[in-house]
Fold this protein.
Amino acid sequence: MDPITAMYVAQGIHGLAYGMVLFLIASGLNVIFGMMGVLNLAHASFFMLSAYLGFQFVSLTGNFWMALLLAPVATAVCGVLMERFLLRKVHAFGHMGELILTLGVAQIVLAGVKSLWGSESLPLKMPPILEGQVAWAGLNYPIYRLFIIGLALVVMAIMGMLLYKTRLGKIVRAAVSDAGMVNALGINIPLVFTLVFGIGIWMAGIAGVAIAPILTVFPGLADQVGMDAFIVVVTGGFGSLAGAFIISIIFGLLSSYGVQFVSQLAPVLIVGFMAIVLAIRPHGLFGAREG
Amino acid sequence: MRFALRGIFILGCILSLLFSTAYAQAPAKAAFDFKSMGDMSDFDPANPIIPTGDTIKIAVVASFSGPAALVGQIYFASVQWAAHDINKRGGIMVDGKKKLIEVIKADHMSKPDQTKKIVERMVLQEKVHVLWGTDGSNLQKIINETANKYKVISINTASLSDELQDATNFSRYAFQSSMSSDQLSRGLAYYYGKIKKKEKKFYILCQDYLFGHGLADSFKKGLMEYYPDAQIVGEDYHKLFLTDFAPYLEKIKASGAEVIFTGDWIPDAANLLKQARQMGITLPFANIFLDEPNMLHQVGVEGTKGLVHISQFGSENPAFKTPEQIKYYRTWNDLWKNKWKTEPFNGRLFEHPAGNIGSYIEQTYWLLNVIARAQSTDPEKIIKVWEGDSYRYTNGKVISMRACDHKAVQDLHIEEYAPPDQQKQSFNIPPYYWFAGTSNTGPIFAIPAKSVLPLMDQNLDRCKGKSAAGD
């Protein structure tokens, strides 16, 4: 592969890697909205919390894998507690209460991480086995970024299995379609809600730990990716996992090839794409029209 | 015995002579006075001793909340250090009375409307004598405008825009003791063209807003002036708070660049450096903000080796030139080690009174020294002393204030980052390195003030017909 071709191929993989991370965050946000109708403004904050917890686990145990396993679970537990004891209480009173509540939780998480870990940027080191680069046909590519793509695919596979091959998945999909009807059939919908909320936060948590070795763990982390995740959800269509996946990948590829070919316009390409999609399909690329 | 004493005396004389010749200092109208320095053992930025009553009031206008809250803490610790020292010396004689320095935190939350509100409150309610700022030229502009409106002194120690003191924005009450973006970019160009004379291919990667573009334009201008053979092989501007730098780095890798010029600040600076090293890009970064020690530790010794940083605090090597300066340094460093137990002041960011912290401290000492010589808090008297003034920092560096547009004229210094075992040339006292876990200042090169004079707007009536040096 000549250097120019190698560059184009590498840009494609960069786009894929960032798209996959976005998908992990956005899909959780999407499932929660699709099923529960809750626009969780604290979602990116949980992503950040998981990165901090990952840092803490690595500091205590020195083991990245342990952090990757435990931090998202611990974050999901926080999410479940929030859903069970806060969100459920305001759910009956409509979206405004939920928005304000989740915004409040986002502020609490921000204040919490600052008081526990301070404002300085913290390091989360990648495991030595994932350091360095892999050389293939004239292309040198960081192993860790390939690992992120692989990890996201594994999480996607788990989610796919869960949603399409299990009874729970059937219930969730049915609830996304019509929660009231599923409830009438005797399914404990509040429990399913809690579970889905936990899984959504867990996915964001995995993204948080996975991306931390590339980024800086600091209190602005949530703002950094939160907006991108929302763009993905809105453009892909609320409630649509397939939409979130496709838009995440398009988002990633537009970012990298945009920088390559029309650098100055790269950020505009993404919002421009969003604007066009929403102008043609106001409910998002794969979103279902309400009513 | 008598011979031995005589021998020691002669040796002492020779050493003193050597010191005085080796470190001959540039003349200055005033200098930091080591001898009357107070007992600083009770200084703790987390538990500051702040006098009240009939005091000289300084409002530190900065972010004390939100994502940039740490910046406010850095400023506060620096200003409070200088204030505490002066208070321990008994204060400053102004208007016939000895007064202590009172430092007040004014949180602008990084928002223009809040800046306007808090600065007006500081002036009208708290009756501060000095507004001390800040991170962000847009916010500093508001501070200066307010200072102008209410005739209060404003000192800009951290905002780098040249436009703050141009014909449109100039205020008699505002002083820019900080270097400017144009100076630092031209300083880096001067280093590559006149000192290093090795790398020729540069890639510019800056943040996509006024500051980033301004830096890049000045760097290009500096290369044309000092390094006509240099080549810009690529130029990109990325959005603020970017997550993934890989697409830009991939282009840089393919461009054949030998140096990456960046004006990025944290978190972008940290992510850029980290991701570049992860991608196997070992090129040096010519930079202004890649000096935050926590970020450098994340990247480690190898990844930070060869970074080229321009500083407004530096001086020629070695860093410690006199016993008084060493004692001064130890006072801060010992307190950091033994007394400061609260976040963020116990972190490695606060380990040395050097770099940005050193610069903010020295600029504050200069301000207080000017007030002391004006013998008044009357802004008109302060202006009279400060215009055309010059002052020597603790490290021997001399800074002066160009009278016509209130911009600081000073040598700048290029610091080449070297591994800990090569930092002794700079950090010449035990443990002989700045940081054990990262590359840091090794070789230092002075950029003479006359080669990096701050821009002067000839449309400003006060500067018409003046030379660039302000004569």
